[in-house]
Structure formats: structure tokens, C-alpha cells
Amino acid sequence: MSKPMLQVNQISKDFATYSVLKDISFTIKREDIYGLVGRNGSGKTTLLAIICGLLKPDEGTIKINGKSYDPKQISMSFQPTSLYGYLTGKENLYLLSTQPEKAISIVKTLHPEQSSDVLNKKVRSLSYGQKQRLGLAIALSKKACLYLLDEPTNGLDVLSSENLSTLIHDMAKKGSSFIIASHEWGIIEANCTRLGMIHEGQIIKELHVHDSKDEPTVRIKTTKSVTKEQFMQISIIKSALEMSPSVWHIKLVSKQDISTFHKILTDKGISIEEFMFIHPTREWEWTYQQLSRGESV
Ligand SMILES: Nc1ncnc2c1ncn2[C@@H]1O[C@H](COP(=O)(O)OP(=O)(O)OP(=O)(O)O)[C@@H](O)[C@H]1O
């Protein structure tokens, strides 16, 4: 097993009397794309700011490749509000990026058709999404081993989001790691290899996306009402959660069980009118929605 590239050890942070982060620990390996999810105010930005050295934790340590690190090894996405409005996009890149030519090429990659406007117009006349592309280009052009992207798809159109995903994948394949904090499940599903859910100052759940595909979840709608006990008597079912009347999320013990799933249900007298696979990150989306509504999970 490869060694962790990033080690976050027992990080705590209070603002006045409010504990934002409480004893947070997790690790990231080379090429991981780690999705940090949690409702507004859960501490995602605070954690990213601590990891990149902008904010000091009250307790805990951050290590990269087993050593205390130089913040130069980390690149955090640049908020579009930090750009200079009276300069053009290109002038901002020359001022704020350590590799402006690379940043220009990233702007072109994100949205080829609009890149000339984004690079040559004064930033104050650009839309939020166009400024976001400049911010991303500044962050992604820096030579770093870890990239921290805070809400990277805010304001981006579909084309720019898709191109951003391709760019992230390409960089990860070459050895870069990412932490992406986002409320937008499209970017999480398209990219993340691991997820961490932050709630009340702690990471309460972690998911290895690839591993969880071994225990697939299906969403079914039954023609008649079925109880949880009936499902749980079936040996290939690991868990059953009723989402709404007759709509269930069923986790199977193994992906091999998919081929026999229909037949076993039919043998037990359970017929289904709808069936679909659920991507592991989508299961999380429901948990996240429950948390956002203030429900316990
Ligand atoms: N400098 C600060 N001083 C005092 N409180 C702060 C400061 N920065 C953040 N907070 C508080 O810490 C909590 C966590 O904020 P943070 O921005 O980290 O959350 P977040 O998960 O990134 O939220 P969002 O999803 O809305 O971006 C919030 O309650 C916020 O008000």
C-alpha cells in the first residue's frame, strides 16, 4: 500500500467560543481526489485554509510525505473576488500565477470559445463564472503536489465543468492529489475517488468510491408494500432503506448478486416496477440532504 502523501493529524480550531473543527484526522495518498462535503458552515473552508497554511490550527499537525511541509507544495484555488478588476484577465494571470503561460493555456482549455474575452477584457467586466475560470487557472498552474479546490464549479457552465473534470483527472494521473470542497454532486461524482463528510466539526463518514462498487446499491420501486424484515431475510441483501412508500435503496452483499437479484425477489413474491443502480456518491447525497435538513443520519 502506498504511503500517505498528506497526513492531517488531530486538527482542532476554535473561533472565539465556537469549535469549528474538533480533532480531525485523515490521510490522502498520491492521485487521490478527495471530496469534502458538508452543509454550510461545517468547516470545509476552514480546514482547507489550515491545510494550505493560511490559518493556524489551535491543535494538531499537517505533514506532507511524512515531514512538516512548505506551503509552496500546496495550491489553493483563488477566490474570483481576489482578482484585480481594473486589469485584464491576462494581466491578472501574469501578476498572480507562478506560471502565467500555463495559466493562460488552462483558461483556453476550460472554455476555448470564450477564452479570448476572459483573457483580454478587464476583469471587472467579466461574469462570476468567467472570473472563476481565472481563479482556477491560477491555482492549477502552480507546480504543487496537492491542490485544494473550494467550490470550484461555482458559477461554471456545463462545458467549463466538464473540461475542469478532465483536467483534474489528467493531473491526478500524473501524480497530483486533490481535495475538492463542494455542494455540487456532479463534480463530486465525476471526479472523487474518496469522500469525507464533515459534520459538527468532525469527519463522520468516509467512503472509498471504488471499494463501495463491490457492494452495489440499487433503487427499486415495488408494486406492493414490502417490509424491511422481508428484505433482510434475503441473504444477498446487506441493508434496506425505505426512501418513500414502496421505494427502497437496497445494498447488495456483492456485485455478483446483481444477476440473481430479480429472480430471488420474484421467488419471494416481491415484484418490482422500477430498478436503477445508484452511484456510491449519490447514496451520500441523500445522507447529506438529511444532514442539511437538520435530521440525524
Ligand atoms: N475568521 C472567522 N472568524 C469567526 N468565525 C469564522 C471565521 N471563519 C469562519 N468562521 C465560522 O466557522 C464556521 C465554518 O466556516 P467555513 O467557512 O469553514 O464553513 P464551510 O463548510 O466552508 O461553509 P460553506 O459551505 O458555506 O462554504 C462558520 O460558522 C463560520 O461562520
Describe the model:
Keywords: ATP-binding, Nucleotide-binding, Transport. By secondary structure, the protein is an alpha/beta fold. The protein has 2 domains: 4-209, Rossmann fold (3-Layer(aba) Sandwich); 213-292, 2-Layer Sandwich (Alpha-Beta Plaits), CATH 3.30.70.100. 34% of the residues lie in helices and 30% in strands. It contains 11 helices and 14 strands. The structure holds adenosine-5'-triphosphate. Residues 15, 20, 38, 40-46 line the site of adenosine-5'-triphosphate.
Which characteristics define this entry?
single chain; 297 residues; alpha/beta; Rossmann fold; Alpha-Beta Plaits; 2 domains; six-stranded mixed beta sheet; four-stranded antiparallel beta sheet; 11 helices; 14 strands; 34% helix; 30% strand; binds adenosine-5'-triphosphate; nucleotide-binding
- Estimate the strand proportion: 25-35%
The helix content is: 25-40%
* Average predicted local confidence, pLDDT: 91
* Residue runs with pLDDT of under 50 for 5 or more positions: none
Return Rg in Å.
Answer: 22 Å
Largest sheet: 6 strands, mixed
Text of the CATH class of the largest domain: Alpha Beta
The H-and-E topology, N to C, reads as EEEHEEEHHHHEHEHEEHEHEEHEH
Shape: globular
Distinct ligands: adenosine-5'-triphosphate
- The main sheet orders its strands as 6-7-8-3-9-10
| Euclidean distance between termini CA atoms | 32 Å
Total individual domains = 2
User: At the fourth CATH level, what is the homologous superfamily of the largest domain?
Assistant: P-loop containing nucleotide triphosphate hydrolases
Structural class: alpha/beta
CATH fold call of the largest domain: Rossmann fold
Number of helices: 11
The CATH architecture name of the largest domain reads 3-Layer(aba) Sandwich
Q: What is the number of E strands?
A: 14
